[in-house]
Amino acid sequence: MRRILVIKLGALGDFVQALGPFQAICTAHPDAQITLLTTKPFAELAKRSGYFDRIEIDERPRRPAGYWRLRRRLLDGQFDFIFDLQTSDRSGHYWKLMWPHRPPMSGIAAGCSHPHANPKRDDMHTVERQREQLAMAGIADVPPPDTDWMEADLTRFALPDGFALLVPGGAAHRPDKRWPVAQFSAFAAALKDELNLTPVLLGAGADREATTAIAEAASACIDLTGQTSIMEIASLARAATLAIGNDTGPMHLAAAAGCRSVVLYSHASNPALCAQRGPAVEILRVEQLESLTVSQALEASRSLTNHPSVPE
Question: Which residues are paired to 200 by β-bridges?
Fold first, then answer.
């Protein structure tokens, strides 16, 4: 294989869990030119990873002219093989667009040369599913995600010794995946009083209403909402004593970076399929997050801060 295309379009958590497969593909094909097709938010991160020679942006075309332009870009790549790690209807359609010059592909699209031929693949965790998919394409060794290359200078934040990351946000259209602000506020206050950890709030602009309310209720909080890049979140996670938050992308990154992580789940998502992975991750799952108590979150946090397997 001289030219390889990797397709990964998804959200931050999905991208983090694909870092191991990215590395595996590079290791298995060291002499190939490897191109990643991804969405714009992850282009810079993909460049800095060192896994790819070229980055192509998926502009998510909706009209025939857009699909035609994408088809031309894909064909111009003259790819010998495609690893479809997105395995969605969209990514499968992109491969079909390349007819009659479709290269061999690892994926699930009907007719691809190296299908992930496990009828129970949808019941597998993302990490195991991608590992098995690559094994069926001839790549047997898939390491866990490596985030050591995500380095950033944190001095501008002037953080104290002993802090915990709080991630109270999440998708706006999925309120059932969020621990209520009132509980988060009480937890932030108790975190300082009982574990002597300064709460540091992380979030995007859309999370500002929640993080502002928590910061106002718990005066010890440091609010970094809208101020952190992905690289900085990874570096903060390595420096933090603990991270606690909803099932969202930054918690995937914190866990993969080695931070002791408590992740809060409701009925709205299944950790058996998508749980954060790392050396010390505690999943707290209840039917409705309103029923999760501050005491339960504190107990899980206290237990993890004494976890022996996580290097300082």
Answer: 165, 222
Cα dist. 255→72, 118, 132, 200, 235 in Å?
A: 39, 28, 22, 16, 12
Cα angle: 235, vertex 238, 240; to 5 degrees: 105
- Tell me the per-residue pLDDT of 83-115, one tens digit each, with 9 for 90 and over: 999 999 999 999 999 999 999 999 999 999 999
Burial 47-75 (b: 16+ CB within 10 A, else e): eebebbeebbebeebeeeeeeeebbeebe
SS3 198: strand
Question: Do 7 and 130 belong together in one domain?
Answer: yes
Q: What are phi and psi of 300, to 5 degrees?
A: -65, -40
For residue 215, which phi and psi values (nearest 5 degrees)? -65, -35
Cβ neighbours of 16 (radius 10 Å): 28
Judgement on whether residues 72 and 170 belong to the same structural domain of the protein: no
pLDDT tens digits, residue range 142-165? Answer: 999 999 999 999 999 999 999 999
**Segments forming the whole domain that contains residue 69:** 3-136
Q: Are residues 7 and 123 in the same domain?
A: yes
SS3 of 97, please?
Answer: helix
- Would you mind telling me the total number of residues written for the chain in this entry? 312
Q: Is the pLDDT of residue 208 over 50?
A: yes
Helix (H, G, I), strand (E, B) or coil at 179: coil
Q: Are residues 199 and 72 located together in one domain of the fold? A: no
- pTM value is 0.94
Q: What is Dmax (Cα atoms) for the chain? A: 65
Rounded Cα distance, 63 and 47, in Å: 28
pLDDT of res. 297? 97
d(CA 179, CA 286): 11
End-to-end CA distance of the chain: 41
Q: Which residues pair with 198 in a beta bridge?
A: 163
